[in-house]
Design a protein that fits this description.
Blueprint (H helix, E strand, L loop, with lengths): L1 H20 L10 E6 L6 E10 L2 E9 L25 E9 L2 E9 L4 E11 L2 E7 L6 E8 L2
């Protein structure tokens, strides 16, 4: 009888664990740290911390993987971002919740200093689609970022 109770207990615990592991993305949050991937090499490029401030989302670079680029400055940026260190730079600015996604904000590409409209979509609890575009969302590019564990 004791073996049956222990077996049932283990079975219930494992079932609960699999239910939690398969929670939909809607129950997860976009806030946290995300590893960005270089489009050309497929290698991790940086870590961006997404946080909420005054009801809007922002994201700043908190880690750069390439040691040669850790001291890089945003030379082509405009305004207050010009010549600022990329490490610590806020690159996602002012996104608002739009259903399950976030939009109506911007993302800065420190490589070329350009500011693009931005949307964020949580695909899974650990996978985020970041889309930057000019004008229409169809005219842009998307990246998939991985949650830092």
């Amino acid at each position: 009888m004791k073996k049956i109770c222990v077996s049932l207990f283990v079975l219930v615990l494992s079932a609960m664990g699999s239910v939690q592991a398969n929670q939909p993305a809607a129950t997860a949050t976009v806030t946290g740290q995300w590893t960005t991937i270089d489009d050309e090499t497929g290698q991790p490029k940086s870590v961006v911390e997404i946080y909420q401030e005054n009801g809007k989302l922002y994201g700043k670079v908190v880690k750069i993987f390439d040691p040669a680029k850790k001291a890089a400055l945003c030379r082509q940026c405009k305004g207050a971002d010009k010549d600022q260190p990329v490490l610590g730079l806020v690159i996602i600015k002012g996104l608002s919740k739009d259903g399950d996604d976030y939009s109506d904000g911007d993302i800065l590409d420190p490589k070329n200093g350009k500011l693009y409209s931005c949307t964020l979509s949580l695909d899974t609890a650990d996978q985020l689609t970041v889309r930057g575009y000019l004008g229409f969302a169809l005219l842009g590019r998307s990246q998939t970022w991985q949650r830092v564990i």
